[in-house]
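Researcher: Going back to the complex we discussed earlier. I've cleaned up the inputs and rechecked each line, so this should be the final set. Can you rerun the prediction on the complete assembly and write out the structure?
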Amino acid sequence: MSTVDTPRNPPSAATPAPPAAAARPQLLSPRGTRLAPEVPRPFTVFEASVAGRRGVRPPEAGVPETRVEDAIPAFARRAEKAALPEIGEADCQRHYTWLSTLNFSIANAFYPLGSCTMKYNPLVNEAACAIPGLADMHPMQTDDQSQGLLELCWRVERWLIAMSGLPAVSLHPAAGAHGELTALMVMRKYLNEHGGRKKKVILIPDSAHGTNPASCTIAGFETRELKSTEGGRVDMEDLDRKIGDGKDIAGLMITNPSTLGLFVRNIRAICERIHAAGGLVYMDGANMNAIVGKARPGDFGVDVMHFNLHKTFSQPHGGGGPGAGPIAVSEALAPYLPVPKVERREVAGKDGKVTCKFVTVSKAPKSIGRTRGHMTHAGVMVRSYAYMRAQGPEGLRAIAEGAVLNANYVRARLHKTWRVWNDETCMHEVVFTGKGLPNGLRTLDVAKRLIDFGIHPPTIYFPLIVPEAIMVEPTETESKETLDRFCDVMLQIWKEADTDPDVLRQAPHTRSIGRPDEVRAVKEPRVTG
Amino acid sequence: MNPTDLKYTESHEWMRLAGDTATIGITDHAAHQLSDLVFLGLPKKGDKVSAGKAFGEIESVKAVSDVNSPVDGEVVEVNSALSENLGDVNADPYGKGWMIKVKLKGKAPASLLDSAAYDKLVAESA
Amino acid sequence: MHYVPHTEPDRRAMLATIGAPSVDALFEACIPADCRFAGALDVEPALTEDAILRELRALADRNVSPGDHPSFLGAGLYRHFCPSLVDSLQQRTEFWTAYTPYQPEASQGTLTTIFEWQTMMCRLTGLTVSNASLYDGATAMTEAVLMALRLKEEEGRTAVVVSRGVHPEWRGTLSTYLRTLGMQLVEVELAEGATDPASFAAALAAKKVAPDKVAAVAVQTPNFFGVIEDIQALSDAAHALGALCVVGANPVALSLVEAPGRQGADMVCGEATSMGNKPWFGGPGVGYLCSRMEFVRQMPARIAGETQDGQGRRAFVLTFATREQHIRRAKATSNICTSQQLMALRATLWMSLLGKEGFVELGRSNLSRAHYAAQRITAIPGFALTYPMRAFFNEFTLTCPLPAARVNQVLLKKHGILGGFDLGRVDKALANQWLLAVTDLNSRAEIDRLATALETIR
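Model: Rerun complete. Updated structure for the full complex:
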């Protein structure tokens, strides 16, 4: 598995100017560095299984045996043991360790995935998770047994309130998309109780993430698409047209900064239009990394938003989850937030001293109810809280500043070769287009070739309004050397596209597999072993 | 280019009219855009269709597209063999790749394109 | 203390390349003045690592942790033995910091483990397709019901029958979603702790819902009160209505309980958190959903599938992607984007390490301990099994001589034992009902201590 091979101490350290081309490190030329043939290894743990092999022994019962035949009647008794793996402990360790080496990870690769904010995941957050007294807590313990965790959740809420500029928060949603859905349900109930039953339509820009319209459908709304301008901005004329007389307008879902990495400059005007139509403004907070501490959505008219704790707040991606999607809402929407939720109460003791305690509120008359089991992803809240405490107010601003500086640096180094969709100052991400690549090559080919250089491809083919989109978000935890290497590689790939197109077409050359046949996966499905 | 005896929609469907029965499918251009087709969802005999509205959907690995009806009417026949032979949509979109036959309600919309107008549309969108 | 590596010289060099005078200038170019926040953020000050951990330990100290006390609390989330290797393997950075496997060449590790999880869950449940996981049991059952509603949409079926044996939080979640969509939820009462199929007709009539409007019947086994349900009878009754049968099942119970997929269940779903994961106060956990391959196009969330690359090498990919939000957008089967991948990985590792035999041994250990506890406790005057004629796995309901809340209070204060779940919290009429879970982590000594303690509580 290749790592960043840029030396930490460049030879020309004494020279303040960027190093001359000759002093740049040699880039990997992966053709010919194909993996050597190796001992064929089984792919799944089932192929590594041998009948009768045993792994770890569970605890001995230690009590007189109750026979299954005596305890479980025939109508419910299992006839055959489930065919789970049969593998020794050491072989099991080998199998999964080897599988892990087939993955990229943040520890060994740069992941400039636009909109995903793949930043460093601090290990102190993991140490926080390992603290006894947190992970073992059962959600159905009583409040007096859970004061520490309840307070932690309440503190996370204070942070999100401060960053959003909105007065109320719910930590209930299990993921960003779940936050969108929960928020839409809150909006639906509020509108229903405020003469808005006929308001069924949510306006969504065509640049939006797919979860936005999908969440609307599940929340019982209709979606109406807003066309973006050439520059990927909200077309105000189209907005006015789609609002019409406003009678059926429930609201607008908008991502700010947008999926093009641009701050929606006329967000105040947009919010005013929606409010004038009696609608609510929902902000998708996926791109908060660009504006933490620099702008507060509540200040510019947003009524409700979600945060992705696995983006800005460094919750590790885990190969696909877990995430968490807390939502922040305006005063008017606060009573509709889901339950259960945590509240802080001040209690006057007999001695006159006031102490505070934290309670779980399970019933609130206007609440939409619950949208998941238990209260929250406490395990995610712990990590995010540890991360927030590492930042403090200055750290939050440093995140946004680093993110915006890094994205603009990449833009500046590449924009003479790669076409930037909006070649202007960007926020934390920059969108290129692969249209114009020589020899009929496509963005997909560029992505696959990056893999050969040990760089995870950026987000591709999103947003939909940019043809052959390549969305690059470096995040603030990447150093200048890493960015330089990425840019050098991108420039090399552009050259290769011109002079040696096959090396892109057949990429990647250095992984355990080449490009898989995805059509076959659907036409001849095999989803279990 | 595209068969001259057919009418076309802006959303790349074609229609062959015989009396009051229309045979409908997607054009060569549309089939080409979608490339490897993996799934086709078609209506049932007796279902009603409306001009400009979707009657089915077609999927490749990475994309889903609505297939729209050029006319109002009722489905009288469905090419059920097509699901097992999706390659026909690419190989012979105007022949074996037909999808449904519809008995017209009223007349076909005047806005349907003839082959020259459709050829122009395709050329401009390249 | 932040993780931004830039020094002043770094910044100057980068700004020079960009052609901007300062980082502030970049923000000024992007954010209009009337949207900028220049104030002080009202948040706690920054701490270094050691202070962060101290702060969190102080919070942890104010919790009463099942890690420090014998605990008999289950109610849907159970503690089971977890081999050390699960932590060690899951903590490999290539598993916990990897991104979603959209680029298969960079993610064969994750994709293979998803395929393994899917295979294992199908083998446990007796069905033929599984997704990569859902948020938790409550949302898994909700997604299963929504899936059934989509499958039955053409028939105009918009009602769902759910047993009161289903976990109250799952029913609560289902209720929120169905209310939002305008679908009808009809609850059926239990008879002697179990769901009686003969009660469906009356329950539907009482709510004025015609039987041919029912899209799904949802039950749970073992149910919330610990009772093992007769899935064959319930699925027969569901199918007789023309509805699909959704079964929520504790996967660890499926070590000894028959696979619901072999007894007529069309969807089997539930909470798999107890396999290899800590309870974490309720989240993040992991939900699972299995169904029949013929329904795959209506299945929500990610699915991994096997294929080949151009050289005929076996490869795993995310497949059937056109169901999902990033392609189908407003018409997606679900809005879900995340899977609980890390938790599902832990469950997969757990199942691999225990293996075919170990899993059944663990199940038997649970069965024996719970039945031993039941025998000892019901020998105490005043304590009785609420549903003596019903079978249970590792959890059962007791009728106590005094309110369960009081029992728990005394157990904790005087004996340092965390007792079972006070069912009075779900329904005041059940104040004397106590739901006790006994798992492979409750030793005989602990069970004896519990019994001795209860003897003194009258």
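Model: Worth noting: Chain A has a mean pLDDT of 90.
Researcher: Good, that matches what I expected from the previous run.
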